[in-house]
Structures are given as structure tokens and as C-alpha cells.
Amino acid sequence: MLFDFHGTLAQVEDPIQWVQAAAVACGHELERGKATMLADRLVMAGRAGGPLPARVPPQLAEHWADRDLYAHSHRAAFTGLAATVPTEVEGLAEALYDRLLSAEGWLPYADTEPTLRTLHDAGIKVAVVSNIGFDIRPHFATWGLDSMIDAFALSYEVGRVKPDPAIFLRACGMLGADPERTLMVGDTPADAGAVKAGLAALVLPASEPGRPNGLTAALALAGCTD
Length: 226
Description:
Shape: globular
Mean pLDDT: 94
Number of domains: 2
Number of helices: 11
């Protein structure tokens, strides 16, 4: 079975917490009112793991296009977008990005661990397939979930981005799984692109951080429910 990462197994932290934590890393403490206004502007500018920006500055266009293929472009795109928002906190754009690289900047959904554990105990191999520009393996290790994941097909390592069928086929190859007997679970149309690779797809709406995400539906399709 294949799972998307963001919006399926985990969600980025609350925007206000994100901004306050990054400011603390820069040696500043922002009261909630200022943090809220700043968070709203940063999310609108373009936050990794958040909604797509309405506009990407021309100087960032190339990095934006390549953000899920190269680690340096991913960092440059999102730090560049954050830097378009005026702030008195020196170094904030880099600190905001660094929160992504830390497991503390994310929250697994409430049903992620039970779902992965049930699949693992049933002997069903699992791969995480993600359009992303950095390594998320340490996140799973921090959360104690790494032993339940058999492979990671990350776009910046594989060189393919969902919905390209090649990334799903690569993940199946990592697991030694037949695509026609494999389910892709995600939260966007890009995840549904697995159908073109011969897989079945389950698309769930993303939930708020830390809440259940409907992943038990995947267990039912895998025949892992009583």
C-alpha cells in the first residue's frame, strides 16, 4: 500500500505556532496578535505544506517549478516567498523553513499510527510517496513510525513528481508489489494519478492537524478490519 505524506499521514503545524516557534529560534518572542497577522501574510505568500501562492515572483519562478525535484530549489522557493513578507525578525524566512525539516513542525494524524501498525502487523508492505524537496525519514523516526514504513519514494530523490505514473511504479518496485494489487491513499488529484499506473486510489479530504483523517477506510479496502 502507498501513502501520501502531507495531508494524508501528517499535517503542518498551526500557522501561528509555526511563526512563534521560528521567531523564538531567531531570538524573538512575538505576542499572539502580531504572530497572527504575520502568519496570515506568510500563508498567503506561500507556505510549504499550505495553499499554493496566488503569485510567484519572477525571480523565484525557476525554483518554484523545480521545488519538488531539487532540495536547493525547494528551500530557495519557500524562503524566497517568506522573504517577500516584511518583518522585523532577522532570519525569520530561514527559521520558518527549518521548522519543516523538524518533526516538531508537523503533526501526524490521530489515526496514522494505528493504521500503519495494523497494516504492518498484517504483513502488508507500505511505502510513502511524496512530492517533496527534503528527507522526511527522520520525521517518521522521531514519531516512532519508521519501522512501519518499508520504502520512501520522494520526488526529489526519484526525479519524478506526482501525478507522473513513474513515481508510483517506482514505489511499487521498491516494495516488490504488483501495481494492479496496490492501493494509493492520498488527498489530492495528483495522488489519484496512480490510476494511470494501474493502481487503485483512495482520495481522502485532509483534516486539521492531529485529528483523525479517515485512514481506517484504507484498512477496510485492504481487508484488515474485523
